[in-house]
Specification:
This protein has helices at 36-51, 55-64, 72-88, 91-103, 107-126, 130-134, 155-173, 176-183; strands at 33-34, 69-70, 137-138, 144-145. The protein has 188 residues and is mainly alpha-helical.
C-alpha cells in the first residue's frame, strides 16, 4: 500500500454534482448591455409620459426596462427618473396604482423591480455626497455640519417618499418581494 494521507483528498472533486465541478458564473442570469444614451432616451420618453399626465404608464415604462447591464451613470440616470416619477404621484393614488400593477400580467416582477429601486434610492439618499462633504463648515462646538437641517438638498423629502412607497408596496406585494430582490443577482 502506498503512503497516502486520506485526510488530504478532496472528495468533492470525485462527486459529479459537486459545486467544485461547475462554474458559478452560470448562476447569474445573463443581462444585455445598455448604454447611457439608451437610458437617457428612455428617460426622456418616460418624462414625456409623466408630463402628459400618465403617471402609471410612466412608472410601468421605467420599471419594465431596468438597466441591469448598464454602467453606473446609466443606472443613476434611471434611478433619478424613477424617484422623480414616485415623487410626482399623490399618496392617495399609490395603493390603487400598485394594486392595478400587481393584478396585471408580470405585475409581481414589475413590483420587485420597484422594490429594488426603492432600496437603491434609500441607500443613495442616505449617503452624503462628495460636494456636501467639501462644503463642511466647522462649528464652534467642534462638530462639523455636514448637512443642513432636514438632511440637506431634499434628501429627507426623497427618503420620506421612498419609505411611504415601501410601506404601500409591502402592503400590496407582501414581504416575499423583499426576499426575492435580496436573493436576485441582478443589481441596480
Amino acid at each position: 500500500m502506498a503512503n497516502v494521507n486520506w485526510r488530504t483528498i478532496n472528495i468533492d472533486l470525485l462527486d459529479p454534482e459537486s459545486p467544485a465541478n461547475f462554474s458559478t458564473s452560470s448562476l447569474a442570469p445573463a443581462v444585455a448591455s445598455v448604454s447611457a444614451s439608451e437610458v437617457q432616451n428612455l428617460s426622456s420618453q418616460i418624462k414625456q409620459l409623466l408630463r402628459g399626465g400618465d403617471s402609471e404608464g410612466a412608472l410601468r415604462g421605467a420599471l419594465e426596462n431596468p438597466p441591469y447591464g448598464g454602467d453606473a451613470a446609466a443606472k443613476e440616470v434611471h434611478l433619478a427618473t424613477v424617484v422623480e416619477i414616485l415623487q410626482s404621484i399623490k399618496q392617495s393614488e399609490m395603493s390603487p396604482m400598485l394594486s392595478r400593477i400587481y393584478g396585471s400580467d408580470g405585475g409581481v416582477e414589475v413590483l420587485d423591480v420597484l422594490m429594488k429601486f426603492l432600496y437603491k434610492g434609500m441607500s443613495h439618499t442616505s449617503q452624503p455626497s462628495s460636494s456636501s462633504a467639501r462644503s463642511m463648515s466647522p462649528q464652534s462646538t467642534g462638530f462639523s455640519q455636514i448637512h443642513s437641517r432636514g438632511g440637506g438638498e431634499g434628501g429627507g423629502q426623497a427618503m420620506s417618499v421612498l419609505l411611504s412607497w415601501h410601506e404601500k408596496l409591502v402592503e400590496i406585494a407582501g414581504p416575499g418581494s423583499i426576499v426575492r430582490i435580496m436573493s436576485d443577482r441582478r443589481t441596480m
